[in-house]
Amino acid sequence: MQLYIGNKNYSSRSLRPWLLMTHSGIAFDEVKLRLGFDPGSEFKTRLARVNPAGKVPVLVDGDTVVWDTLAIAEYLAESFPDKPLWPADKRARARARSLCAEMHSGFQGLRGSFPMNIEASLPEVGARVLAEHGAAEQDLARIVGMWTTQLGESGGPFLFGSFSIADAYYAPVCSRIRTYGLPVPPAVAAYVDHVFATPAMVDWVQAALAEHDFLDFDEPYRSQR
């Protein structure tokens, strides 16, 4: 299998399947493309060969092409039934899918205000944006409440006890919490730490820090020095 991804520092959607596959021991070849959305860019040109939508991530498995993070997650769960990508319990599995679907289609206030940027440290931006943008503040409160409830029910350290698709799906939010110094209670902070301590996440972060690639369209709060 091949997984097409964008810059590890910025591409939150790429992180989801990469983290899931790496953590779960699913073998794949990484194809990393420098993000660039102008028509005719290398990013668009190469992606067009496998995905007419021109977006990452894209999973290529033989003659099967899967795009969209939730579709990739479901494809992997069906392809590797021996790996506990979803919780085994039916009720927990339904809850995990609900959490992922809510992330998939929602939280535009938080995602738009706080783009993923692993190498940056912008706590002053986080405080200002939360004070000025009610939608971002409401999204953060919803996520904190959801995680707190789920961690309380499962006992942690991950949302459903052991690492699952749900944790891979919310890993970019964990990154945003760190980058922007977003205020979260101790139990949520501990969860963020557990996600960042997984060997797969450590590898992603190290690779992101090694990129040294400033993309101005993903940098609303800084200018290139």
Question: Can you walk me through this structure?
Answer:
The chain is an alpha+beta fold. Helix content is 55%, strand content 7%. The chain has 10 helices and 4 strands, in the order βαβαββαααααααα. It has helices spanning 12-24, 42-48, 69-79, 90-105, 108-113, 123-132, 134-154, 165-179, 186-197, 199-211, and strands spanning 2-5, 29-32, 58-61, 64-67. A hairpin with a 2-residue loop joins strand 3 and strand 4 (64-67). The radius of gyration is 17 Å and the shape is globular.
- Radius of gyration, Cα only, in angstroms? 17 Å
Low-confidence stretches: none
Shape: globular
What share of the residues does DSSP label as strand, in percent? 5-15%
Brief summary:
The chain is α+β, with helices and mostly antiparallel strands. Helices cover 55% and strands 7% of the residues.
